[in-house]
Amino acid sequence: MRILSSCTLCPRRCGTDRESGKIGFCGADNTIKIARCDLHFWEEPCISGKNGSGTVFFSHCSMRCVYCQNHKISHLGMGKTVSVSELADCFLTLSEKGANNINLVTPTHYVPQIIEAANIAKSNGLTLPIIYNSSGYENTETIKMLDGTVDVYLPDMKYFDDRYALRYSGAKNYFEIASRAISEMFSQVGKCVFDERGIIKKGVIVRHLLLPHLLFDSKKIIDYLFKTYGDDIFISIMNQYTPVATLPKAFPELGEKISEKYYNSLVDYAVKLGIKNAYIQEGETAKESFIPEFFGE
Ligand code: SF4
Q1: Which ligand 1 atom is the nearest neighbour of the CA of 16?
Q2: Is residue 4 within 6 Å of ligand 1 at its C-beta?
Q3: Is residue 72 situated within a structural domain?
Q4: 41 in a structural domain
Q5: pLDDT tens per residue, the chain (297 residues)?
Q6: Range list of H helices, the chain
Q7: What's the domain count of the chain?
Q8: For ligand 1, is residue 61 a contact (CB within 6 Å)?
Q9: Which residue's CA is minimally distant from atom 3 of ligand 1?
Q10: pTM for the complete prediction?
């Protein structure tokens, strides 16, 4: 917890004294805020399964992408303040509801509190796999803190070319930082392991969301992941980009959805490379109705 007094949890390393209540670049202070804690059925099949994934959506975010699909919670910080023990209770409640796992969404800025809550929940009987679902923009030291707590890493790899990382997320050295973080994640949990129902127990799934006009950048990411990890990790290639009403006018190139043809050309590229372990999306997923509502559940 001492790290919060001069916070360097994420690559922004803004050094904010969150311990005394100051607010960092991510919007977080010394409290924990969550926007939703409920079963979620729209993750990859090995995560949601039939029972649903026990998701905890954390408020605030250290990335703050201009096209964020969860703007209310990431940029505006909507949510409820909870204590560490209440967070542990959330994990246990999700387990009682039959969740396949505990899925921590945008957790980076709360890592010390999450570790403490997970320890409390485990000592009270939590046995579900814990999934760390993040932007991929992570310090390796922070990921090292999670060794032994997290079973499944679910990072994004958003950009290959830093120009786009800077333009859309204000994130310096995104590719280098995310690739080092993913390497640390893989060294902790290794290859994917599934239970008899096909639900993931441990491993790494890297998500990549295809953005408008960035097919060439997406191909470089797929190349990198396959050359580095082969089929030891899963890649989730996503087509669900939705231009949201909060997209600033300065980014008109992001104002359209991804066409089926455009997305299929990325999937074909992955297939031609020889990738076998991947998830793809079919049908109409680019809808605001697939973005969860945040009513404080
Ligand atoms: S987690 Fe927040 S406060 Fe900490 S370094 Fe990152 S932006 Fe700054």
Answers
A1: 3
A2: no
A3: yes
A4: yes
A5: 789 999 999 999 999 999 999 999 999 999 999 999 999 998 999 999 999 999 999 999 999 899 998 899 999 999 999 999 999 999 999 999 999 999 999 999 999 999 999 999 999 999 999 999 999 999 999 999 999 999 999 999 999 999 999 999 999 999 999 999 999 999 999 999 999 999 999 999 999 999 999 999 999 999 999 999 999 999 999 999 999 999 999 999 999 999 999 999 999 999 999 999 999 998 665 555 555 565 556
A6: 45-48, 71-74, 84-96, 111-123, 140-145, 162-169, 174-189, 215-229, 260-273
A7: 1
A8: no
A9: 24
A10: 0.95
